[in-house]
Every structure is written in C-alpha cells, then in structure tokens.
Write the structure tokens for this entry.
Amino acid sequence: NSVIHGFIPAGRAPFYRPSLRAGSVVRVSRFEVARCTNMYKITDHPFVIRFIPQTTIAEVIENAPVINVEKFMLRSFDPLQALANTNLELP
C-alpha cells in the first residue's frame, strides 16, 4: 500500500525499457536500497531502490497482485516545471 521511488541510471534504461510496460506487474531482483535524499524525494517513502548492473526484471504473469489504480494519485508537475533549469533545490 505504498509507493517507493526507483532509480534507473540513464545508461541502463535501454536495457530495462522492454520489460517495463504500463499496466504490467513486475518482480525486481538484485537491487540496492538506500535512504532517499530530500533533494530528489518524489514520494513519501524514506527509501529509494537503485537498479544496478545485476538487477533483473521479470513480468509476473500468474498470481499477480491486483493493484487498485485509485491508490496512485496523479501529480501535477506544473510547480516542478517552474523550477526546471533554475539550479534551485526542488521542494
């Protein structure tokens, strides 16, 4: 019942992109967990997961949990857009 921020380094993104589809449920293995810094915090969760070269992703086909979409609030990024390229710390 919570959302945790995941970070994929730009150089690794093409490797994981085919496995990440909207609406799919995936199992992520072999990743790092770290405290989320306030500078990059986009969720209320105190931790962030970081994808490393050993990280694997596999789509869960059978016995996948049902995720209640209403639990995910759509955020307005307008306030962040105003801060883009200003070299200010994001709230």
Summary: The chain has two helices and three strands. The chain has one domain: 5-83. The helical segments are 13-16, 78-83.
